[in-house]
Amino acid sequence: MPELLNVKPTRMELLNLKRRITLATKGHELLKDKQDALVMEFFTVYDEALRLREELSKEMEAAFEALLNAQLEVGTLRLKEAALSVKPNREIEIKQRNVMGVSVPLIEAESFRRNVQERGYSFVSTGPSVDLVAEKFEEVLDLAVRLAEVEETLKRLAKEIETTKRRVNALEYIIIPRMEATVKFIKQRLDEIERENFFRLKRVKALIEARSQGS
């Protein structure tokens, strides 16, 4: 039997508890709906994360293959010189957006992809292989930023799902059963009091009648 609430067995408390049970039941339904919606959103984002991870893995493989080819063509030293000559890229701004009541990151950044002139390294000491390396790693950066946003969203959704689940379970298995058990106890106690009062009145009536007959 669930633990009872520490309240007085009065009709006022009984009415109050019934109202609380109604509110808690509605709250449980709303939280359950929220939990279901969060789970659906989680798996939608999860599918996106899997797609991006797979795409990023392929792009990284292609980028390192291009890097190896460039090293063979222009040499490691010239490749390092070209890398050090690259101009800083655009800034990344991290904002927040709301998904099912959960604050998740929104990364705003222009594409990392640039043309040859924007990169800043010398055309003379490099070649098409270096351009290809730059292009491939710019694609990798674009995907990495997108994946970072999606994976952080997944973490926050998972945390919110767990929090909502705990609240749903607390209402379903602890709070509502305790209130219902307390309502049952109060009803039983009020019935007992009513029966006791009935028999007390009956005894008083019998005593009054007995005295009136004896006088």
Automatic annotation (TrEMBL):
The keyword Electron transport belongs to this UniProt entry's keyword annotation: no
One GO term (biological process): proton motive force-driven plasma membrane ATP synthesis
GO CC entries: plasma membrane
Cell compartment(s), UniProt: Cell membrane
Origin superkingdom: Archaea
InterPro entries to which the protein is assigned, alphabetical: V_ATPase_D (IPR002699)
Signal peptide as annotated in the record: none
Coiled coil: 46-73, 140-196
Primary location group: membrane
Stated role: Component of the A-type ATP synthase that produces ATP from ADP in the presence of a proton gradient across the membrane.
Subunit structure: Has multiple subunits with at least A(3), B(3), C, D, E, F, H, I and proteolipid K(x).
Protein name, as recorded: A-type ATP synthase subunit D
Organism of derivation: Thermococcus waiotapuensis
Gene name of the encoded protein: atpD
